[in-house]
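Build the 3D complex.
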Amino acid sequence: MPAIDLMSGFVAELRRAGLPVSLTENLDAMEAVKVIPIEDRDAFKYALGATLVKNSSHWRVFETIFEVYFSLRGSQYNIVDPSDDQADEFWRDEQDQAQQGQGEGRGAGGGGLEALTPEELANMLMRALMAGDQAMMRALARQSVARFAGMEPGRPVGGTYYLYRTLRNLDLDNMLAKLLEAGKQTPQRDTSNLEQRLAKDEYESRIEQFKKEVEAEIRRRLVADRGAEAMAKTLRKPLPEDVEFMHASREEMQSLKKALFPLTRKLAARLTRKRRHGRKGALDFRNTVRHSLSYGGVPAEPKFKYPRPAKPELMVIADISGSVAAFARFTLMLVYAMQSQFSKVRSFVFIDGIDEVTKYFKATEDIQEAIHKVNTEADVVWVDGHSDYGHAFEVFWERYGKDINPKTTVLLLGDARNNYHASQSWVVKEIRKHARHVYWLNPEPRSYWNTGDSIVGEYGGHTDGVYECRNLRQLEGFVEKLV
Amino acid sequence: MTSTFSSVAQVRDGLKTLNYLADDGIAGVVYLAQRLGKPVLIEGPAGTGKTQLAKSVAELVGARLIRLQCYEGLDESKALYEWNYKKQLLRIQSDKKSDTWSDVHDDIFSDEFLLTRPLLEAISAPDPVVLLIDEVDRVEVETEALLLEVLSEYQVSIPELGTITAKQIPMVFLTSNNTRELSEALKRRCLYLHVDYPDLEREKEIVLARVPDISKNLADQIARIVRSIRQLDLKKAPSVSETLDWARTLILLGVEHIDAQQAKETLHVLLKYQTDIAKAAKELSVVE
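Done.
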């Protein structure tokens, strides 16, 4: 494929993945490619990255797409069939090198990696991981994918399936424990707690690296099979701000958490600025007259009152039952991370019983720890631990209803899936009568609302607005509006 | 010594001789910036060597470093240029009779009465310069617009004088601590470089290069401990400069091999929040 087509396909895919790539940036990238040789793959990648990606949280997505589009360039990235002569030699070379490096005569007697049994392969992997031997790890990754993934051309299965199969065969889950055990037995090693802890981190990162090698190998093979464009489509991952709370994988959760902190900082900075530079207030008569003295009593320079918009008082009432727990956690984290923007924050969590959790956040500076306490210590189960909005609201009104005043903004978080209990929506109506605003945030897509046991419409009618908050972007937008 | 880079490797090796250890990304972007004549926007956590990069590059190409420190309230007269008002007044008051109106007018708006500020200075400098615009995220969105003309056209327009175009294109580095989103217009004009905490090997090399008299063993241990600490969920992860401080502290204390006790006692050099210190101390002494 000519380079220009490849580039434009690449840029189009970046745009499809949601990265804002402008025309000038595209042109810059083309310029950059001219001065960087494509053979230097790393430099090439960074050149494209520097011109096309202007937000560090988009880097991962960029990397994946880059892999897909350019992983077939460069001779060492050729796909080789393991039964191929040349490949065989390659494996043998790698293996010989590795064994020489370890000064060991053990192995499959020059029969190449494919002659090894899975156990032997796993053992070899373990040794490679212990020694941190990069070349060996890469060779093993290729070999294990070829052997265990069971990839067939044209099979409509995603990469994760192959990944799972490969790793299961290598017993990678138990690898860490095995490595640690082996590390302890080496006599000259320092066995203090600190050393052990460091060793564990070291092994973890090596295993992580090996996993990445395996993933990359699977991708390379899939691309060779299906072509870059089709592959990019199946691999397309949402940007961190577009990841849905309700379906986030563990890895995505991590990246969300990472994205949250800088986001709150930015949001807070923006809001403070907005508050400060907001519209001028009413005419300050006294001040104007005072200044008129320097103009001989002529009020030449009108002075205005400095506007001081009141910071809202916030009450967050969150459903933390399984299906929406992640969303509730995130919203609580976001709210507490920007506490300074509110004059007072109180929070309540419920499943079918309700409990106030403000104290956990007051007790510690560490939001993560507070969230952990909320999850483990709050008393939220009344009967069976299935969401009962009605009962929770009723109890809330009884215990805390009197604390709601005209300065309070109440946030209700949840999917309003009430398991067909009584809705008690009069509580929301009462809250609205007393509070400044009542908003409902729903992590479900709008099209699911009011289907099945969801009764968000019934509650929503008594609020000032129901907002769809499926991802960080929507949540951010709402918070900005709120303050 | 003014030089044009011929390859990425040259940049990396050149920076290395100045004790700045660049990874592929950093060296690649610096090389690209010079070849394309584009500014570089560097983002990343505090204390990862963003400002140092600009300084080192200036030293490498043998150029003068002109630095514009940004802050809230920075305006045209501090960033671009200002008329020397007092001198203009003096000029008008001296020999009033001989001058016609147009003479005075032309005269007081000439180079002599112009006070150059960093941006204009970088543009009009006859010798090679590197312009560093530090912490650009601190200025207001409106002020950002001031930079746009300089960054894309390398020129400054002064209504009374006309447009001053750069005699040579300076290398420009902008740094940002990411406290707010920079405008699209600014980002579009720059190459983007995200400098993150270095990986284990690089951090080790940095410690070895920057801290005199440190043993390989100790540097390795320091780098590994710091990596472990960065993996914890902290308010503020230790930066490279804090790693270096820690290494120097340990050298002063005459430590050859860190044990848990010493690590705990010196953690305050590395971490600046009490909760972080407590957490790290707990984590480092226990294996889960």
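Chain A has a mean pLDDT of 76.
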